[in-house]
Structures are given as C-alpha cells and as structure tokens.
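Extended Data, panel c. Modelled sequence:
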Amino acid sequence: MIYKVKQEPERAILCAVSLPGKTEETEHSVEELEQLAETAGSVVVDTMIQSREKFHPVHYFGTGKLRTLHALAVEKQADVLLFDDELSPSQQKNIQKEIPEMKILDRSALILDIFTIHAKTREAKTQVKLAEAEYLLPRLTRQWTHLERQAGGIGTRRGPGETQIELDRRQLRKRIKNLKGELEKIAVQLETKRKSRSKRFNVALVGYTNAGKSTLMNYLSGSGVEVEDQLFKTLDTTVRRVQLDKTHTIYLSDTVGFIRKLPHQLVASFRSTLKEAETADLLLKVIDVSDANFREHIRTIDAVLKDFDIPEKRFITIFNKTDLLSSDENIRYIKQHFPGAICISATRGIGIDRVVRAIRERIEESSYVHDLYVDPEDGKLVADLHRFGEVLDSRFVEDRILFRVFLDKPVYHELKKKYRI
C-alpha cells in the first residue's frame, strides 16, 4: 500500500509599507493580502508593516527593517515573504540577495498564482499564462534561483514560475507573441458568440471578488455555477439564458472579480473576458455591503471599468449580503447615500424580485411593442418574430395576420430592413 505524505502549508510573513495618511488603507490591504495567501494555500505566521515617507527604491523596506524581517522570518520558520505591493525587478533581486533562503513574492505574483489554480478553460489558462510570462520577462535573470525550486507551493504551480527561468528572453518573447495570437483567435470566437446573443438583452454581473456574483447568478438562472468562499473562484465568464417571465428573456453573464492593486498584466490579458461587460446592455454592479471596505471596493471597480466605454446609465448598483448587517439603520444609510441602489441577500433570496423588476424596466426602455401585418405565406418572418421577439397576440385581419410583438430596438430595425416591413 502506498501512503501519500501530506505536504505542510507554507508559512508566510506579510510585508507592507504604510505611506503618510494611508495607515487605514494599508491595514485593509494587508487583511486582503492575508486572504489571498490563505486562498493560495499558505498559513500566515506574522505581519510586518513599516511606516515610511516613500518606498525604499532598493529594498522596499529600509535596510534596518529588512534585517529585522530576516530575523523574524528565521524565528517564525517562514518559507515565503509576501509583499503587499508589486516589487520592481531590482527590489526583488536585492531582497533575495539579503534573504537568500526565503521565497520572495509580491502581491502580483501571489494573485497570478491564484489565477493559475482556478483557471479551468482554455481561454482562462491562456490569459493567465500570458500574464505570467509578461510578469516574468523583466525578472528573468540567472540570480533568480528560487524560481527553480521544485518543492511546490505558491509561486511555483506550473508554467513560467518554475520552467521559464531556463529560457532566454528571446524564447520568452516568442512565447508571449504566440499566447497573444492564441488569445486573438479566442477573442474572435467569443465575438461570434456575443453576436449570436445580440438579439436578446444582455446583462453582465461585475464586482469585487467574493461579492456574491455567482450566488446571484445561480438564483436568477437556476444554474450550477460553482460558488465557494474564496477569492477569484470565478475566472471564466459564464453565460446563461434566463427567462425572467413570459415576455422577458435575457442572457446573464458572470465576469471575473476585481481587487485592489490588480496586476496590470492580468487586466490586459483578461480584456477579452471583460469585453462581456463592455458590450452588455446592462451591468449589475454587485457590492458586498457587509464588508467594511465596500466604498473602496466600489472605487476599485470603477477604476477598472474606466478603461471601457460604458455609459453610467447602463449600471444598477446592488448591495448584497444585507442580511449580515447589524441593523436596518445601515440599510437606511445606504439608501440615503446611494439612491437607486437595490439591497439584497442572494443566499436567502431577499430582494431578488426587485432586481428582476429593475432589469425588466431597463429592457422595456430599450424595446418596442409593434403591430405588424404579415402574409400567412411568409413563414420565415413569422419564425423570426417568434425567435427574436415575444409575440403578445396574433389574429387574422382579412387575408393577413396581425402580430403584436415585443422586440428590442436593434432587432426590430434589423427585421425591418431584412423583410421591408
């Protein structure tokens, strides 16, 4: 009989610099870094935060603080030092020189590692590989021996983290070029799928990671989207056809979650995924209102979406997890400062009817009810009316059929042009 030896989780120390006036923000960011570390499979054994006027250009921390960190890491028997900001290649190299026996990872590398764990589809895996390669390229030097370790753990899952050190920059650039080419092909396929859904009203869920988007999608669509209390559990865009009622059908998509200090390499490589948000008729901005930092989450979401051409009128803000708030006073505060927002609990189904009603109102704003006279022999037009619209009534008027049909504006104009009605 073969017994598997259980690998102990890596012991991590969190490291951060607190700039003037940013004490509270840094504390929140470090709390989030701890969640990221736990999601990646590490156990946090200590935290070190240094207050500084600015980041040390050579070591991130001051040299004295770095020596203190080294001693703490030895005392705590740490395996990895996790830095809350993206380190420059030179900073990472210099820290590694001072603390050679520890694995040195920054926030970007940690998030990339989590994305590697959760990527399931060809699209997501390609996007993560591209982001990893672009992150590694400026850091590819022979001094980075820790990247060659085969012991596993965060930062060494597979792909560029453990094998690309053996390749020169020319080979890595070639890999980046090939991955971009593959993503372009995938983007074309996704665009074709989006066009096939353009005849219906498209709604996209956007929000901070772990805000409950997948739970809300499951409630609305009855689909089995995987839901787990982990950061970045959903990477692949999931699209479901949802029948809101007899006359309103939508396509609902769940997009990748956002987070503060999201690596720019990931934002760039996941642009085709975020395209779902850009092309949607309506976006539901889902916020975990039980999180004390939800205002910062809103700012992070808005900062990412700023790069996309999305008018403000295409948003509905939804505050989720209201059942976890301590009193109704908090909900009154939210409604006062965020008029038009909807308060719900996706896990308990509270307020979902208001979400459905709001979506339905937006559909009707962008749609028409038409009376169309159709020859009975015109089977293709009749089929398209049923396929792309909602036939509310039909009756014979002399030798023709009068259809009362509910059609989205772009669909109506397309049918009007096609059949000259």
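Residues 11-111 form a domain with the Rossmann fold fold (CATH 3.40.50.11060). This feature is highlighted in the accompanying rendering.
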